[in-house]
Amino acid sequence: MSRILIKNAHILTMDDNRTEIQNGYVVIENDLITKVSDGNPSGFFDKTIDAEGNIVMPGLSNTHTHLGMTLLRGYADDMVLSDWLQKEIWPAEAELTAEDVYWGSMLGCLEMIRSGTTAFCDMYFFMDETAKAVEKAGIRGCLSYGMIELFDEERGNSELIKGERLVKEWQGKANGRITTMYGPHAPNTCSKEFIARAKKAAERDGVGVHIHVLETEDELNTMKKNYGVCSVHHLDSVNFWNTKGDDLTAGVDVLAAHCVWMSDGDIKLFAEKGVTVSHNPISNMKLSSGAAPIQKMLDAGVNVALGTDGCASNNNLNMFEEMKTAALLQKLVTTDPEALPAKAVVEMATRNGAKVIDKKTGALKAGNKADLIVVDTKKANATPIFDAYSHLVYSAAGSDVKTMIVDGKILMEDYLVLSMNENEVIEKSKACAIGLAKRAKDKKEANG
Ligand SMILES: C[C@H]1O[C@@H](n2cnc3c(N)ncnc32)[C@H](O)[C@@H]1O
Ligand SMILES: [Zn+2]
């Protein structure tokens, strides 16, 4: 058995009581937390980490990513979503290879480790490669193959097979660090019949579903024009939002990314059904998609988590930036400075996201999995700290994350990443990105 002690910590447990402990310690035995307390620890430890008064908290959960897209960081900016996807991103993605996605995913894992994200929910292609990267990097990943049916039944059949294969092969692998979901892309790229089939498969396999919904006003208008209802009600007619399953036995998580154009009725429905929303404020602002009504969702009792979206629309995976932006955006659009206070944002970025990834993460307490970070407070931007939540949201940087433990393993210690060769990942992913961009450009020119 391996025993790790983290001592002299300013602990934010993020448990049900949001207990905050000054001068506390955490004991980790193998992959689990066995004690979180103040006072003096006793016993023998294989490894002691002196937190020196730094903040120790659950690792952050990035609940909406397209990790292989990390290679497309900065590939096409300053465009409207439909043009951006159809004219730039999808043609480039058509040139992706398995090797590209492996190194893009490794790069994404590296960036997440360096900025405090211990777990993420992904939807992309060549997912075996992302799974291999997660296995190697040591973090936690909830992976879905992005199924784009395009209202073509035959294409839908083959997409569903790919989605199923990921679930069958990877669910629970890497000591449970890898989990899976079904990922029907969106209600304006997939028919509701197809999305309903994906949901049924998820219930059968006991895994969740991950979808984009009401990201743009254009989606809302198109759905209303074509079906007479918005995306949320369109999919409610096939029970897509039910988290209990048709037979009310097998509960599955439903993760809805963006949710910018939600009506009050949609919000009420999500609260009743127990849907988790992944709010992606930076991507929504960058693509001018709009501002999701997050304070309203929280008031209605919706479980709202936070995500960065892919690296081509953000353009990074830094959850500290996402936290600050989320808070500022709600204050701006509601003209209410009390909207989305710092503590609520930290809840979104930790425990709320953890609910759809692994229910034994997202809070530091005995019995939970040991997924945590140490945030360095010996910094100018961390002086003084009157309130730890305020510091994390309004002043801290991703690069202040000093040490990370996932599943009881130290992935980064004192700013040194231990689970991969950082230079190799940067060089290999850069070479892949250059090759990918060149193939995409050549193809574009050949097509005139
Ligand atoms: C899984 C699929 O989702 C696409 N994708 C990436 N970003 C977004 C977004 N903001 N909205 C919709 N789709 C997106 C990826 O480019 C991939 O094609
Ligand atoms: Zn997305």
UniProtKB/TrEMBL annotation:
GO terms assigned for molecular function: 5'-deoxyadenosine deaminase activity; 5'-methylthioadenosine deaminase activity; adenosine deaminase activity; metal ion binding; S-adenosylhomocysteine deaminase activity
GO biological process per UniProt: S-adenosylmethionine biosynthetic process
Amino acids binding substrate: 93, 155, 185, 215, 309
Residues covered by the Amidohydrolase-related domain: 55-411
Enzyme Commission code: 3.5.4.41, 3.5.4.31, 3.5.4.4, 3.5.4.28
Catalytic activity of the protein: S-adenosyl-L-homocysteine + H2O + H(+) = S-inosyl-L-homocysteine + NH4(+); 5'-deoxyadenosine + H2O + H(+) = 5'-deoxyinosine + NH4(+); S-methyl-5'-thioadenosine + H2O + H(+) = S-methyl-5'-thioinosine + NH4(+); adenosine + H2O + H(+) = inosine + NH4(+)
Family annotation (SUPFAM superfamilies): Composite domain of metallo-dependent hydrolases, Metallo-dependent hydrolases
Pathway as given in its UniProt record: Amino-acid biosynthesis; S-adenosyl-L-methionine biosynthesis
Cofactor: Zn(2+)
Keywords in alphabetical order: Hydrolase, Metal-binding, Zinc
Annotated residues for binding of Zn(2+): 64, 66, 212, 309
Free-text cofactor note: Binds 1 zinc ion per subunit.
Keyword flag Hydrolase: yes
InterPro entries per UniProt: Amidohydro-rel, Deaminase_MtaD/DadD, Metal-dep_hydrolase_composite, Metal_Hydrolase, MTA/SAH_deaminase
CDD domains, A to Z: ATZ_TRZ_like (cd01298)
Function (record text): Catalyzes the deamination of three SAM-derived enzymatic products, namely 5'-deoxyadenosine, S-adenosyl-L-homocysteine, and 5'-methylthioadenosine, to produce the inosine analogs. Can also deaminate adenosine. The preferred substrate for this enzyme is 5'-deoxyadenosine, but all these substrates are efficiently deaminated. Likely functions in a S-adenosyl-L-methionine (SAM) recycling pathway from S-adenosyl-L-homocysteine (SAH) produced from SAM-dependent methylation reactions.
Subunit field text: Homotetramer.
Additional information: SAH is a product of SAM methyltransferases and is known to be a feedback inhibitor of these enzymes. As a result of this inhibition, organisms have evolved efficient enzymes to metabolize SAH via different pathways. The pathway found in methanogens differs from the canonical pathway, it uses the deamination of S-adenosyl-L-homocysteine to form S-inosyl-L-homocysteine for the regeneration of SAM from S-adenosyl-L-homocysteine. 5'-deoxyadenosine is a radical SAM enzyme reaction product which strongly inhibits radical SAM enzymes.
HAMAP family the record matches: MTA_SAH_deamin
Family: Belongs to the metallo-dependent hydrolases superfamily. MTA/SAH deaminase family.
The name this protein goes by in its record: 5'-deoxyadenosine deaminase
Lineage: Archaea, Methanobacteriati, Methanobacteriota, Stenosarchaea group, Methanomicrobia
